[in-house]
Amino acid sequence: MIPVPYNSIVCAAAAGGAREPLFRNPSASASASVYLLQFNCNRRRINTNNRRNNNNNFMDSNNNMRTESYLRHVDSRKLMPNGAGHIPHLKAVILGEALASEEDDLVLPSKEFSDQANVHSPEQYMEMYKRSIEDPDGFWSEIASQFYWKQKWGEKVCDENFDVRDGKIKIEWFKGGITNVCYNCLDRNIEAGLGDKVALYWEGNEPGLDGSLTYSQLLNQVCQVANYLKDIGVKKGDAVIVYLPMINELPITMLACARIGAVHSVVFAGFSAESLAQRITDCKPKAVITCNAVRRGTKPILLKDIVDAAINDSAKDGVSVDVCLVYDNPVALKREDTKWTQGRDIWWQDVIPKYPSTCPVEWVDAEDPLFLLYTSGSTGKPKGVLHTTGGYMVYTATTFKYAFDYKPSDIYWCTADCGWITGHSYVTYGPLLNGATVLVYEGFKNFMRKRMYFTTNIGLCEIDINVLRETHRVHSKTTRKNGFYMASYLPAPNYPDAGRCWDIVDKYKVSIFYTAPTLVRSLMRDGEAVRYLYALMFTVYLCEIDLRINAFGFWIRVSTHQHTPMTHLVSCGLPMMVEENLGTCLICIPFPKISDCKLCNGLKGTPSLMKELDKYVTRYSRKSLRVLGSVGEPINPSAWRWFYNVVGDSRCPISDTWWQTETGGFMITPLPGAWAQKPGSATFPFFGIQPVIVDEKGVEIDGECSGYLCIKKSWPGAFRTLYGDHERYETTYFKPFAGYYFSGDGCRRDKDGYHWLTGRVDDVINVSGHRIGTAEVESALVSHPQCAEAAVVGVEHEVKGQGIYAFVTLVDSVPYSEDLRKDLILTVRKQIGAFAAPDKIHWAPGLPKTRSGKIMRRILRKIAARQLDELGDTSTLADPNVVKQLIELSDS
Ligand code: 6R9
């Protein structure tokens, strides 16, 4: 019996049968706009129902709102954005969509889409899935045969031991097969007639800076680099560290390594010198390849300086680097200003063009290593995830083709950096193996946003959203200057304005757009912020209030007898929280949420702000878009809806792909033409993947349930070991639940069999889709001479998904100070990278520990999230007073 991943009831619904979906197939309704309306209506219906239920008590005779009877009290404060609990005696009330259930929202692909899709129905999926599970060897070898193999694999397609109780964990696919990934990406496609097709488009940060390479041109450049590497003595199996920004030279270098059988280890160019040194020391590379500098905003980041420091550091550990190839990036730094070590450093442009543009392929075994990529774990030491050649090639190519419904005419853009696994599997290998045209974007940088103005009865308000912080730290201040309100705002990753993404989509006619929820949320906020400002402006106009803006939303203080603004906000459908104290009422409207306000619409055009609504998106055509994708963390339903409705014009399915550095490729993902989606769910397993949800004892749970997400049996793209530490590989992934691969993620399966990822269950924080081990941050903090101890936990963050919250105990007699706080954050930035900087340092005279000295992170998580009435049992603590002290220091 094979597990049935797709519930037959949903199949029927998706096929237009038994169950009436809440959201209709747009093709079934009169027009797309009708569909949109239904979409919004449904949201409203949920809100209106609430209202209707309380209708009698809702308004008093003067049409003022009766807050008590209307607002719904929330049992738990976990629904509030972090920081809201700062307010003493908070009485939290949330309105709006947060309480809606997403489980019954089915969004179906249009008939036109399904008809042309690679997998067009649940039945077709089920048939293929069944075969992939019942006959994996046949299924995968048929696909593998579409690639070039110098020699076919041996007897066994797959040879595995997946159970620690039966000995050493071993995963092998296509062993004995001789091939080369670079050959399959380039030469094979050129032979098939794609030589003149564009392989890579490159778009720089600065509008106007761009370029492109056809498959033939790309092969020539790859060969030149490959020849150079061979010339300096890089051989099959040797490691090469790549520390480059998103320029074409990054995928070129990866492919060049693959061509000669060298193992690339790409390090994200946002990592610090220390992190880079750690990776150099671990894999002892024959060469380091970098760039002198890259421009982020107006500031050049001196990558070469970071590499110099890292090489010095690793030399102290006895690992020397003989060659450092440096790409000259004059836009960021002049050659003559680049620090240079004669004899070791060499300019890319001085040597590479001199090498021949053909290079014979080094044929390798399917199980020979292709690359190393370090990822965070629950200890301070990053793990070198090792992927091999054959299985990874077959798996990334196949997942790319099906999850994005790839067609040869597509223009594909993945916003990930090649420094992460997404850039390996779905910027470089997966798409190029399919002969796709890939857009490489230099990357998002924070941009200087213009000021926003709005009028109120207290005068003209100016929202200064210019105060950008590299760190993305949650930080805000509101000042009143000359009668103007100024507020700092979280930076958004875009340049020169929030429309850049869609400008690029139109410029290249991008048809598949794959990105991360954090980016969706920050872009959505740009449009939504305007909508909010508008609603708010009107509210402010209605009564004199004290307005504050922080990272969580707009905070308004009004006196309790003034119900009009609240009524207005309610009519806008804005979710909000209210704290009522004697005579005053503090309202927080967390942004961004999609709202629809008759009142505001009625005033459309009065102040021009309304016109600004979503214009960053809608002023671009986006007609070329066909499929959207999301990766890195769970996408929250409101971001999903905005992505679907606004960006994709309610026309493009979203592939919410769940996978990991370790899995090499997609594991649970929609097949966009095959079935209905539920906003926020990664849906069903890919071919050959058997996800199981287990309880804490490792017992599989059937049907509707929540638990730990594990995978039964191997798949071709699985990682084979942790570099130099097979024991850690087994301990981390295969020992927690014997017989399974343990993902480290929690998961819920709903009544229809849809999978909902609920985040990490281990000590790993997911910040903007980047995995950061709490232990890594802690060890950076304690390296500071004045830090005695540190404990780091993740907290919910509106844009980044999770933020980093650090409890810090100082050495005796060191006073708390703002300078020290900054210094501690700087220490983490220096040691790991800016993206790992803590959002909050919470001074801790002591940490809550059990009598055996174990830190009780559960309690720290609750304190960080201000869920103070959910601290649970603290009686096992060695010193229960510690908790009280920590709570007292919460706002210091
Ligand atoms: C590809 C990548 C892996 C972790 C993973 C999970 C989270 C990734 C997700 C998702 C929910 C998705 N994650 N995609 N959670 N829905 N679509 O991001 O690899 O950097 O190794 O991170 O990211 O928690 O365990 P990696």
From TrEMBL:
EC assignment: 6.2.1.1
One of the record's GO molecular function terms: ATP binding
Domain annotation Acetyl-coenzyme A synthetase N-terminal: ranges: 125-185
SUPFAM superfamilies recorded: Acetyl-CoA synthetase-like (SSF56801)
A Gene Ontology BP annotation from the UniProt entry: acetyl-CoA biosynthetic process
Domain AMP-binding enzyme C-terminal intervals: 776-854
Recorded family membership: Belongs to the ATP-dependent AMP-binding enzyme family.
Protein name: acetate--CoA ligase
